Structures are given as structure tokens and as C-alpha cells.
Amino acid sequence: MAHQPLQFTLDRGSPVPLYFQLSQQLEAAIERGELAPGSLLGNEIELAGRLGLSRPTVRQAIQSLVDKGLLVRRRGVGTQVVHSQVKRPLELSSLYDDLEEAGQKPATRVLRRTVEPATARVAAALGVAEGADVVLVERLRLAHGEPMAALRNHLPAGLLDLDDEALERTGLYRLMRMAGITLHSARQTIGARAATLAEGELLAEPEGAPLLTMERTTFDDTGRAVEFASHLYRASRYAFDFQLLARS
Hints:
Number of helices: 8
Pfam family, one: UTRA
Radius of gyration: 21 Å
Distance between the termini: 51 Å
Number of strands: 10
InterPro entries: Bact_HTH_transcr_reg, Chorismate_lyase_/UTRA_dom_sf, Tscrpt_reg_HTH_GntR, UTRA, WH-like_DNA-bd_sf, WH_DNA-bd_sf
Domain HTH gntR-type: 16-84
Strand order of the largest sheet: 4-5-6-9-8-7
Structural class: alpha+beta
Order of helices and strands: HHHEEEHEHEEHHEHEEE
Protein name: GntR family transcriptional regulator
Largest sheet: 6 strands, antiparallel
Keywords: DNA-binding, Transcription, Transcription regulation
């Protein structure tokens, strides 16, 4: 679908390269929803002429957003907006709910759902005996049909009834709430590492691509651990958003 021409303000006296100024303003327009998924950009010649820029400058700006996964070049169609990067607030919410709230059309593919003996690490997180039965759920979360994150969750056995259909229909936290579990707090660690070959194939990233990691142990209102999560997010598609307060 077409869109009304956007207005850009470029400072030719700035030390910031013109292609970078343009790419930043295009990215901001995508983040604000002024360029919705599926929107077409004008061709490079038209955009260069309207802004008084050279075609290589416009091409470099567009390529930087193609590299970020925000734009895609489609033969016979032109340059098209794919989606904005998801910025997730650091609060006790599920990825499914966050994507849905951001209009990202979440979908889930269940990769594995089984019962297995708890490793020492999982047992310590869930407060169960090592070797005790725990439920393992592995899922691929998608947004606009594209892989976004690989989710691995361990739950205490008997916590709630799960089936693949329910897990593909909605988020795990929503299923917990529907089962009468009141989520209260969580302990969370965020990191980063390079994707393995298998992880890259699952998440549509090359081997060695940067991935965000998140580990979370979630507790209900009685203090019981109800989930130990270990998630991988595509750094090109996803960011965690912090709000920091000054210490008094």
C-alpha cells in the first residue's frame, strides 16, 4: 500500500553523515507507525530528487535499514517496510502480550512439550529436588510471520494442564492466569551471545549473529516458583527497554 510522502529535515552542516540522518529519520517514522508494515517507500531516484541528495546517499540509508531487518527490497514491488524493532519494557509480562499490544501479530509454533527430570540448575530455580519431574516447553515465537524468539520454559509438574493447541493460541502467562495462578514477581538476567548454527537456522539468522538472552524465574503470590525461562531473542528485531531512576 502507498503512503503520503514523509517530511525529513537534514542538516548539511552537521558532522553526522547525511545517509545516517536519513536512516535515523526513516527508522523513527517506522517506530512511530507512520510507515506501517507493508508500506512502500518511494524509489531511490524519487527520494533522492525530493531531498536533494545523491542516489548513493539514499541507497546507503536504505541499505542500513535493510541490514537491520526494517526494510526489504522486493523485485517488482520496491522497497517495503517489514516491521519495526520490538522494544520490550522490563516488567513482568509475556512476550506474546507485548507483541500483541505492539500490533506485531504474534504467533507460536510448539517445538517440544515433554516431562523430564530436573537438572541441578532447573531444580534450584524451581525449588524442587534434582531429578524430580518437570514440564519442558519449547516454542518459536513469531511476529508478522517472522521468527522473533526461541522460548524454553520449565514448569513444576502438575502446575497446570497444557496442550499444543492452547500454547499456539496464546501466551503462557495468560494460560497461567486462566488457571488461577497469580503472578507476583520474577528474578531476571539479561545477556548476549552469538548464535549457534542450529539457533541461527531456527531464528533465520546467520551462525554467529548476535542474540539477546533472558533467564527468568517467576513466582506466584505465595512465593512458589512457577516458571524457569531461558529465552533467545534476535538482536536485529528485539530490544529490552529500561527506565532508570537516580538514587536518592
